[in-house]
Specification:
This protein is α+β, with helices and mostly antiparallel strands and 160 residues long. 37% of the residues lie in helices and 26% in strands. The protein contains six helices and seven strands; from the N terminus they run βαβββαβββαααα. Helix 1 crosses helix 2, helix 4 packs across helix 5 and helix 5 runs antiparallel to helix 6. The longest helix has 14 residues.
């Protein structure tokens, strides 16, 4: 299918997120530009590969809500959100492109993803924009990373 990489976002410092991700089985990219501090005490880490259940494992390690997006050639984004309390949701970015890859859209229904994302944001203490979250989950862009940024911003994260 092509290259898969991704991003994990959690309420942690970059150093903590690297440590927690390694302990949760993520294959991180490494190097100085693999991670960034985000606003509000959040950090993002790029990974080369994510284990099954990676978002949930990372939430258990951080003790805080986590969101991961695994990319398929920058065309499609597979989103997973998890909370320390056990909440879990998944979504799909660039649905039209995903359908072209033969990815079954019925495995990623929009309404449960929207509800899960809004619950995730509330658990994270963030103020989400429901219309913005829906637009990211149903929108189309040349690069799935652009939709991921729109989703994270709509969930209330400060990416600046």
């Amino acid at each position: 299918m092509g290259n898969s990489t991704g991003t994990a976002v959690a309420r942690a410092t970059v150093e903590e997120l690297r440590e927690f991700a390694a302990g949760a089985g993520f294959d991180t990219v490494g190097g100085g530009d693999d991670a960034a501090e985000l606003g509000g005490g959040w950090a993002a880490l790029h990974f080369a590969d994510q284990p099954a259940g990676g978002a949930e494992a990372l939430a258990r390690r951080t003790g805080a809500p986590v969101i991961t997006v695994a990319y398929l050639d920058s065309d499609v984004g597979f989103v997973e959100g998890a909370t320390f309390a056990g909440g879990h949701w998944k979504g799909l970015l660039n649905r039209d492109t995903a359908q072209g890859y033969g990815i079954p859209l019925d495995r990623f229904p929009v309404q449960p993803a929207l509800e899960g994302a809004l619950d995730w944001a509330a658990a994270a203490g963030l103020t989400a924009d429901p219309a913005g979250v829906r637009a990211a989950l149903t929108g189309s862009e040349a690069f799935a990373e652009d939709l991921a940024d729109r989703l994270l911003t709509a969930l209330g994260l400060d990416l600046a």
